[in-house]
Structure formats: structure tokens, C-alpha cells
Amino acid sequence: MTSAPKRLPPIAVGPLRAHAGQAELIAIDPLSVAQADVGEVEHGEIFTRRWVVELILDLVGYTPDRDLVAARAIEPACGSGAFVVPMVERLISSASAHERDLSRAWSAIHATDLLTTNASHTRTEVRGRLEAAGLRASAAQRLAAKWVRHEDFLLSPPEWNSADFVVGNPPYIRLESVPRARAAAYRRACPTMGGRADIYVGFYEQGLRALRAGGVLGFICADRWLRNAYGARLREMISAGWSVDAIVGMTGVDAFEDDVDAYPAITVIRRAAQATGPLIVMTKPTFGETDAKQLRKLVPSNRRTPVRRAHFDAARLTHWYAGSEGWPHGSPEDLAVLAALEDTLPSLEDPSTRTRIGIGIATGADKVFLTTDPDLVEPERLIPLALPRDISSGRVEWSGRSLINPWDDAGLVRLQDWPRFAEHMTAHKQLLSKRHTARTGNWYRTIDRLIPDLLSRPKLYLPDFKDRIFPVLDDGTTYPHHNLYWVTSETWDLQVLGGLLITDIANFFIEAYSVRMRGGFLRFQAQYLRRIRLPDQDAVNANAARGLARAFVERDADAATAIALPLYGLNRMPA
Predict the structure, then answer these.
(1) Which carries the bigger pLDDT value, residue 384 or residue 330?
(2) How far apart are alpha carbons 383 and 369 in whole angstroms?
(3) pLDDT of residue 23
(4) Helix/strand/coil for 347
(5) Distance between CA atoms of residues 285 and 572, nearest Å
(6) What are the pLDDT digits (tens) for 195-241?
(7) What percent of the chain clears pLDDT 70, i.e. is strictly above it?
(8) What is the dihedral of CA 342, 519, 235, 317, to 10 degrees?
(9) Parent domain of 518
(10) Distance between CA atoms of 302 and 279, rounded to whole angstroms?
């Protein structure tokens, strides 16, 4: 990677992509952008408990036994000093132990915050700690002013390759909640912030780029980016030049000063190639300060044997994942089993078995395109539509709702050929024309085009939200709504395939990659379904096939799992 230019005066560095030794620049005053809307948005401040901060500092190696005066540590959103104050205290201890002149540690800490009140408060705290350590008031004031700055970290990032440590708890704000000008500047500055990203993705990007070779980042942050689509660019970036040292799941743990509706995890990422797997830690809600002290003792160890404690489990994996696809989550033992299955077995969507996965039709205006009136338009323009409620019993029980279909094999039908269809569509033209999909002038089209032969093909349906995987067979009589995924296969008997998909093993893959939403429901998406592995078809003998098909028809997941385990080379489900 080409080095970035030196830090510029108050102009934001543009898209962090270096070309021929230079980076593009964007002429934006970062503080003017920030201050213009500082009162318009919630700044996502969540303050971290002291014992959690101490754990993160230990995990990244920011410890007094090192010469911290010679190192450079960055805290990108300092808030009230939850990280900076313990860092200063460790820096003071390190300076004493290594007989270093603390007053010369100008570059040791670089902390920023978008809010002037936060920066001012943290400077006061830092100055107090330095004076208590014996520095003269003037020297303490100069260091505090140098270390803690009022800046927008995303628009005024530190130099690339300049830091040994980046630590903190970046703010949680969805990008669409940020005023437009500021959000646009953030997107230009941080290419990883695609889609509906949270701005903490940008904090990861800027923090990781700031690390020099061997430097370490440690954040406590929402864990959604590890698996969700909006984290894809960041995951791809990390696999290209960084390595994951540790992931500590903290869901339900009392890690913050206030009650937080979040799914936090500590991630420790190093600027180095991924030579081995990370330390994976799964905590229980009862995990606390005493447990954190036990966990710190495991940090220097490379042991791969799982460690079980009362309030957490931990182990190092043999490898980690590369590319943009979501990272799995689970216990260390679960992830080891998952990796072995992924290394040896084919995926559900497989060209060799001609098995495909897709999602049902999105119309962009269900109130117009869905009907229960068989006489509303010509019968040829109606297609029986399956919705999640139609398969809730485990069988397709069509509710009588149809799709008003604007397509034929040649494309969009002509209005003049279908008078009742034309009358219905024209009555809703104003609404339909406002949709983004109507920008081409085809105002009465659905967002998705109908797949011509999907209606008549046997297929498995899977609802997009469910507490566990729930395949249902359609014998070729309905077409799926966009809340249903479908699976077709040229070689699998669909009842046998349904028997494999109803198992705890298939659900194990979804649990590893998906996230549970409010109400405890799993989110089923094609990207997660494609991660499911199946046994080789040749390994499924006639007896196993009959048993799986029967278990599918009877909705007996336990029986299907018992039959499937040996087909996967397993004698039990992972704990």
C-alpha cells in the first residue's frame, strides 16, 4: 500500500485511496461541517466501565512494562476520558519504570472528540493526573492541550502508519441519521462506509490505517459489522493487510455506564498478516471485573485447548476468514467444527447439483400488485402468491392472495392488450410513478421481474424471519413473495433436501452467521443460506434418504438431525 501524505492543516483528507504516491483531497473544513450540525444529531455516546477499559488496554498490550513514552496511542472519540485517563495513568507508571521524562512525551497520546465539552473535560482530567504525578502545572497543561483535541476523527484522521495503538469505544450512529453534508463527507473520507453503515465502521477504517506495522487496534463496539452486509468492505480491507488477534463477545454484559440496547464485542486487530487464528472468547451476562482479570492471563498464551470458566469460554482457533463474507460467531468449539465442515463439504447452492437459492418477488407497491379479488384483472394476469403466513403450518396453505403480474415471457406486457389490467394500473399511476424503479418510464412494472418457470417448479420455501430454519415444500402451485426465500435443485429430492435443511446442523450454520433480531428471531438471507453445507449426495444412502424425507414430512427436526449427523461425520451437535 502506498503511503499517505503527511497530515494536512484543517482540510479533511479525502477518500483514503493512494494513487502514485498521492491521495485525493476534499476541500472541506471538518470542524465547520461538524459544528454546523452538532446540535442536530445524537452523538452515540456510550461510556465504558473502567474494568472493561483496563481489559482492552491489556489485550492490545498497552501496559506499563513497555516504554509507552516512546509509543504513540490514539483514542478517536474520547468522550469524558474513559480510555484516556487510564492510558495516562499507565503512561505515568511506564515513564517512572523506564526513567523517562514524562514532560517530553509529546507524541505519546493523541485523543480527539467532536464535542468541545468532551475535549475540555478530558483535558482537565488529564491535567489533574499529570500534576498529581509531579509535573508542574504549566507542563501538565501543555501536554493535556497537545494530547486532547477538538476534532472530527473521520474528517481529520491521523497520518497513516503513525500509531502503535488505537483504542476506544467509537460512537454508534447510523449514517442515515447524520445530516446530509456531513454524511457525504464521511462517505468520501471512508470508502468502507457503504450502504446503511453505522459511522463506527469509519472509525475502524481510519484507526486501522493509522497503525504502523505491528500496531494494534482494540475497540469495544456493536458486533453487527462482523456479519452484516454493511461491514463487507471493512472485513475485506482487514483481510488484505491486517489480522484479527481476538474477539470477545460481550452481549448482555454490564460493560457500560448506562443501559445499552446493543450487542457489543471487543475486537483486537493487528497490522500484520493473519498467521494464525484469533483468541475467541464467549462471555456470559454474568462476566465481570474478576473474570476480566482471569481472561487477561490467557492473552500471552497460544494454547488451543478450550478454556472453560464459570462466566466465559475461550480458545485460539487454527485459522481465520478472509474476504468480504461475514465472520461467524459462536463458542471456540463451535467455530472449530464449522471450519472443518466448510473445508470438506459442498455448499447448499452448488453448480454440481444445480441447486439454486433466490428470493421472492418485490413489487414496490404491494397494495397495488396484491389482491384477493379474482375478477379485478384478467385471470391470465393473476398468479397465486405465497406469503410467510401461508406456510406457517409447515405446508403451503394458499390464502387466496394473488400477484397482479405485469410480465410475460417477452417482458413487460402492453397495457392496450389487457383492458382490466390497464384500468387497475392507471388508477394507481400517480403512486406507481413515484417509485425509484419507475425512473425508466415503465411505471407499472414490479421491482423484480418474474422468473418465468419458477411458479411451476417444485421448490422449498424458507421465511426471512423465524426462530429457527423452517423449510416448506411447494409442489409448483405458488410464486414466492419477497419475504420468502426459495431453493430449487435438479438433482436433490426436495423432501430429502428439506430433511437436511430442517436439522439442527443446518440451523447451526445460520446461527453462526446470522443475527438474532428483537423477539429472538433469526434473520434468514441468501448470504447466510449459501453458507450451509450439505453432505455429499453419494453419502446419503437409500435408508437415510427415506428417513430424512419422512422426518421432513412429519416436521421432526430431532429425527432428521439424528439421521444427518453421521452423514456430516459428526457424532453429536457442537455444544
Answers:
(1) 384
(2) 11
(3) 31
(4) strand
(5) 27
(6) 888 999 999 999 999 999 999 999 999 998 998 889 999 999 999 99
(7) 90
(8) -50
(9) 355-362+448-567
(10) 9
Integer Cα distance of 303 and 317 in angstroms: 9
C-alpha cell at 266: 471487543
Secondary structure (3-state) at 244: strand
Amino acid at position 215, single letter: G
Cα R_g (the chain), whole angstroms: 28
Per the prediction, the chain carries an average pLDDT of 89
Residues 269, 227: Cα–Cα separation, whole Å: 16
Give per-residue pLDDT as tens, 22-47.
Answer: 233 333 344 444 444 444 344 545 67
Asked whether residue 431 is domain-assigned, the answer is no
- For the chain, helix (H) and strand (E) counts, in that order, are 18, 24
Calpha distance 307→320 (Å, rounded): 19
Residue 156's CATH number? 3.40.50.150
Cα 252 to Cα 237, 264, 311, 439, distances in angstroms: 29, 8, 12, 45
Look at the alpha carbons of 430, 436, 439, 442 in this order and tell me if their dihedral is positive or negative.
negative
In this structure, is residue 335 part of a structural domain?
no
Q: By CB neighbour count within 10 A (0-12 exposed, 13-18 middle, 19+ buried), where does 487 fall? A: buried
Q: How many domains does the chain have?
A: 2
* 350: Cα separation from own chain's centroid: 25
Residue 520, amino acid: G
Which grid coordinates are listed for 566?
Answer: 453421521
Closest Cα partner for 121 from 131, 109, 111? 111
